[in-house]
Amino acid sequence: MEKFRLHNDEAYLKYLEEFITENRKMRIEEVLKYRTKHFCIALEDVYQLHNTSAVMRSCEVFGIQDLHVIEERYGKKIDKEIAMGAEKWVDIHRHGNHQSCIEHLRKNGYQIVATTPHIEANYLENFDIQKPAALFFGTEKTGLSEEVMQQADSFLKIPMVGFTESLNISVSAAIIIQNLTNRLRNSEINWELTSEEILNKKIDWTRNSIKDIEFITEQYLLKN
Fold it and tell me: Residue 173: pLDDT above 80?
């Protein structure tokens, strides 16, 4: 109960900000201006751990807040050397199978977009960014499962003019994320986080910036 209350407690945030520098506080506020939940990324059974971590890093760099990881076949842990600290700033949601992930995303208003170079699909520059979308990426060798492909609302691919038919998943994700988030920020779409989401992220990110956060939080709870 106490921990849940702290997630939207402005007094708790003000207390925590006493333990970080003014530069870190300003940096958090600046980064939050560009964060979005309009798009999110979903990875289905990506075997190579460094690819999952690299995609998470791209999410963080280009302002995607939510990364969904489907772990039906392969267990995952974040490769922190590749992620370069991005795991502190991106929300990672784990799902035991593709169906639970798809149902969760649809419930939260997302269309399911399958990325694939192999079938008729929207080219990246023509993709409609108006609707909130969950962008699905599949395994390195076989791509997305047939189950995900059959449930997709639309398909997306990167224009390629060489002999090679596909890119590494982390490269594909970086290209797509950069393109779509740049277009989004230059549009009139309401893509920003809500005031409540901003408050929650300020608390989360300030917590992640403090070494002895559990002790400091205990002290706050004792006083309040």
Answer: yes
Indicate the pTM of the whole model: 0.88
In one-letter notation, the amino acid at residue 161 is V
**Distances in whole angstroms, Cα of residue 120 to Cα of each of 100, 139, 174:** 26, 19, 21
Residues 34-67 as b or e (16 or more Cβ within 10 Å = b)? ebbbbbbbbbbbbeeeebbbbbbbbbbbbbbbbb
Alpha-carbon distance of 130 to 112, in angstroms, equals: 14
Tell me the C-alpha distance between 140 and 51, whole Å.
Answer: 9
SS3 64: strand
Lookup result for tokens 């596909």 = 166
- How do residues 36-59 score in pLDDT, each as one tens digit? 999 999 998 765 667 788 899 999
- Give the total residue count for the chain: 224
Asked if residues 176 and 156 have their Cβ atoms less than 8 Å apart, the reply is yes
Find tokens 């969760």 and name the residue. 104
Q: Is-contact 88 131, C-beta < 8 A?
A: no
The amino acid sitting at 117 is P
- Residues 84 and 14: their CA atoms lie apart, in Å, by 28
Residue ranges and CATH numbers for the domains of the chain are 39-186 (3.40.1280.10)
Alpha helices in the chain (DSSP H): 2-6, 10-16, 22-32, 49-62, 80-83, 98-107, 146-151, 169-185, 195-208, 213-223
Model confidence pLDDT, tens digit, residues 52-88: 888 999 999 999 999 998 875 545 555 454 444 567 8
